[in-house]
Design goal:
It is a single chain. By secondary structure, this protein is an alpha/beta fold. It has three domains: 160 residues, no CATH class; 164 residues, NADH-ubiquinone oxidoreductase 51kDa subunit (Rossmann fold); 71 residues, no CATH class. Helices cover 27% and strands 19% of the residues. The protein has 13 helices and 17 strands. A six-stranded mixed beta sheet has the order 1-14-13-17-15-16, with helices on both faces. Strands 2-8-7-4 form a four-stranded antiparallel beta sheet, with no helix packed on it. A four-stranded parallel beta sheet has the order 11-10-9-12, with helices on both faces. Helix 4 packs across helix 5 and helix 4 packs across helix 7. The radius of gyration is 21 Å and the shape is globular. It starts with 23 loop residues before the first strand and ends with a helix. The mean pLDDT is 95.
């Protein structure tokens, strides 16, 4: 029986648009744009100036802080500008512009490393210097995640990929299974663990078979088949399904004795050791009914999304929405000028939204949001707190445990956008908690 968690919902996944198509490597792009914010953590400073020549794999931005990860050039060429530019978060972010000379001269710093001969600190140093972060979208620096204060029992590679449309990780399983397990083994050594786990939803059976057929596969690698439902790929739900443990309220996965990394992150770790190349390329799904030829592309970071759309045949229809990420947790974009970063998993182009919301609709008290909430919360109570601007009430109903998966809004028969109201008051609760902590309460 497939492992799972209580709650959740099976959403039509629409992965058939791209899951059987080979990954396509993008042709040359003239200009690459590197935002200096591609991770959760301390901001970066540019290490290059306008007019400088750069090489593939060269570090171009970094910070001296521990919770941070550098950015590298994915091409060789000339720095033409450093200025604020569009970011898929919706804000303007300082970015480095590099004109591609299309020679792809590799930096002298790029060289393979033998992870088996390294100690823990050396492994973490390589991962940090490679700029590896949670490449499924979260962006948390991987060297920090692999440095828990407490001993952990599980290292899990997240291959659930539960958001509709996205097949980037699925294609990695089919085409780069050796790298996934290699990267997992590096993480296992860094955490001093004998066994590693890979969780994969059952709608990717050929991906499961491909990983098991890998030359890197062995008895200490455990493939866990997961029930196909959303949000199976959320960290806390994945840990519950595989280990049976609950991440404590306000805690981290390590507090439940587990560390979770994404499939793309495992591949990036493998590349950092096998080739020496930092995190400068990844799979990106371009899908939806508004694009002519939905595809999965192997993309060098810094490529404008408009270039990806062109390579997918352009728009077949005028899109109503362009989304960076999945349709449930992604961010709507107002243009396609923003560049691909380390956390870009997909670009969705949607002609007509599947669900529309009525801001004035009354709650019909059906309880579906409670039944399906993966965190076992009461979303309608959180909405009440938001409408009344009652921070204390929102805190009492554990709003900070909300993972913002959007499922409550999706399954609401009254077409209420519950998540929108939750997001409106959640920052106020976070502010209150910070103030209480600073005041010693």
């Amino acid at each position: 029986m497939a492992a799972t968690f209580k709650g959740g919902f099976h959403i039509r996944d629409r992965k058939e648009l791209t899951n059987e198509k080979q990954t396509v490597r993008l042709p040359d792009c003239d200009m690459h744009i590197y935002p200096m914010r591609q991770h959760i953590g301390a901001p970066l400073k540019a290490l290059v100036s306008v007019g400088d020549k750069v090489k593939v794999g060269q570090k171009i931005a970094d910070s001296g802080e521990f919770v941070s990860a550098p950015v590298h050039s994915s091409v060789s060429g000339t720095v033409t500008d450093i200025k604020p530019y569009f970011h898929d978060s919706g804000s303007m972010v300082e970015a480095i512009f590099v004109e591609n000379d299309k020679e792809y001269t590799v930096s002298d710093d790029v060289c393979p490393k033998d992870y088996k001969s390294m100690n823990r600190d050396e492994l973490l140093s390589v991962i940090r210097e490679a700029g590896i972060v949670g490449m499924g979208g979260a962006g948390f620096p991987t060297h920090v995640k692999l440095s828990p204060k407490q001993k952990v029992d599980y290292i899990i590679v997240n291959g659930a990929e539960c958001e509709p449309y996205i097949t980037s990780d699925h294609r990695y399983m089919l085409e780069n299974a050796d790298d996934i397990i290699y990267g997992l083994k590096v993480a296992m050594k860094a955490l001093d663990l004998e066994d590693g786990y890979i969780g994969v939803e059952l709608n990717k059976k050929n991906g499961i078979e491909s990983v098991k057929a890998s030359k890197e596969y062995g008895e200490n690698i455990h493939i866990i088949e997961l029930k196909t439902k959303y949000p199976q790929g959320a960290e806390k739900q994945l840990i519950k399904a595989i280990t049976g443990r609950n991440v404590p309220a306000g805690g981290l996965p390590a507090d439940a004795g587990a560390v979770v990394i994404n499939v793309a992150t495992a591949v990036a770790i493998a590349n950092a050791f096998k080739t020496g190349l930092p995190a400068i390329e990844k799979n990106v799904t371009v899908s939806g009914d508004a694009v002519k030829n939905p595809s999965v592309f192997r993309v060098r970071t810094g490529v404008p999304v408009s270039f990806l759309i062109e390579q997918a045949g352009g728009f077949a229809n005028v899109p109503e929405k362009i989304v960076s990420g999945g349709p449930m947790m992604g961010i709507s974009q107002y243009n396609t000028d923003y560049p691909v970063t380390k956390t870009t998993s997909s670009v969705l182009t949607i002609t007509k939204a599947e669900k529309t919301y009525d801001p004035d609709a009354p709650c019909i008290r059906c309880g579906r949001c409670v039944d399906h909430c993966p965190m076992r919360l009461m979303p309608m109570k959180l909405v009440q707190a938001s409408k009344k601007d009652d921070v204390d009430m929102a805190q009492r109903y554990n709003i900070l445990e909300c993972i913002e998966c959007g499922l409550c809004s999706y399954i609401c028969p009254a077409n209420k956008n519950l998540l929108q109201f939750i997001r409106m008051i959640k920052p106020e609760v976070m502010k209150k908690v910070r103030e209480e902590k600073n005041n010693g309460k």
